[in-house]
Amino acid sequence: MKTTCIALSLALLATPALAAQAPVIIKIPRLTLEAAGKIAHGALDACRKEGLQVGVTVVDRSGDTMVFLRDTLAPTVTIEVSRQKAYTAVNFNAPLSTMEDRFTKPFSVGKLPGLLFAAGGLPIEAAGNIVGAVGVSGAPSGLQDEACARAGVEAVRMDLEMAGP
C-alpha cells in the first residue's frame, strides 16, 4: 500500500514537468480550397472518361465538407453518400474498400449515423499528415467510385508530397 502511494505521488509530481514541455498549441496542416477543388474535379473527370455520372465530396481533416460536385445526371442520393464516404474515410484514415466487412455486428461503431463503410472513400495525406478525404458515389460499383477518388488525389499527388511540415 505504501509503495503504491509513493508511486502515485511520484507520477503526479512528474505530470506538471511533462506538461511544461508540451506545446500549448498544435499546428495542424490543412487542405486548401484550391487543392480540394482540384481533387474533386480530378475525380469527376476520371469518372466522366468512363462514362459515369457521379457526386464527389472532399472534406477537411475534421470531416467538414469543403467541395462538392455532382455531375448533371448523377442521382441526388450521391450528395449524401459521397459525403458519408469522405467523412468515414477521414475518421478512420483508411480506404473504405479495406473496411467494408470490418463492422458487421449489430451494435458496432459501423452502425453510428453518418458513417458509411462502402468502397469509394479515400483519406488524403500530405507530408505524413491526414489533411482530408474524398468520397465518390454514383458508379455501378464502389471499386469504380474508389478508382475515381484515387484519380482525384493523384491530380495533386506531387503537391501533397512536396508539402512541408
Describe this structure as you would to a colleague.
The chain has one domain: Haem-degrading domain (Beta-Lactamase), CATH 3.30.450.150. Helix 2 (33-49) crosses helix 4. The protein has 165 residues and is α+β, with helices and mostly antiparallel strands. The protein has helices at 2-21, 33-49, 77-92, 142-154, 157-162, and strands spanning 55-60, 65-70, 121-126, 129-137. The termini are far apart. The protein contains five helices and four strands; from the N terminus they run H-H-E-E-H-E-E-H-H.
Q: What key phrases describe this protein's structure?
A:
Beta-Lactamase; 165 residues; four-stranded antiparallel β-sheet; alpha+beta
Write the layout of secondary structure elements.
Blueprint lengths: L1 H20 L11 H17 L5 E6 L4 E6 L6 H16 L28 E6 L2 E9 L4 H13 L2 H6 L3
Antiparallel strand pairs: 1-2, 1-4, 3-4
Helix pairs in contact: 2-4
Beta-strand content: 15-25%
What spatial order of strands do you see in the largest sheet?
Answer: 2-1-4-3
The tally of beta strands, per DSSP, is 4
Tell me the CATH topology: Beta-Lactamase
Low-confidence blocks of residues: none
String of helices and strands: HHEEHEEHH
Radius of gyration: 20 Å
Tell me roughly what share of residues is in helical segments.
40-55%
Structural class: alpha+beta
Q: The biggest beta sheet, please?
A: 4 strands, antiparallel
Shape: globular
* Annotated CATH architecture: 2-Layer Sandwich
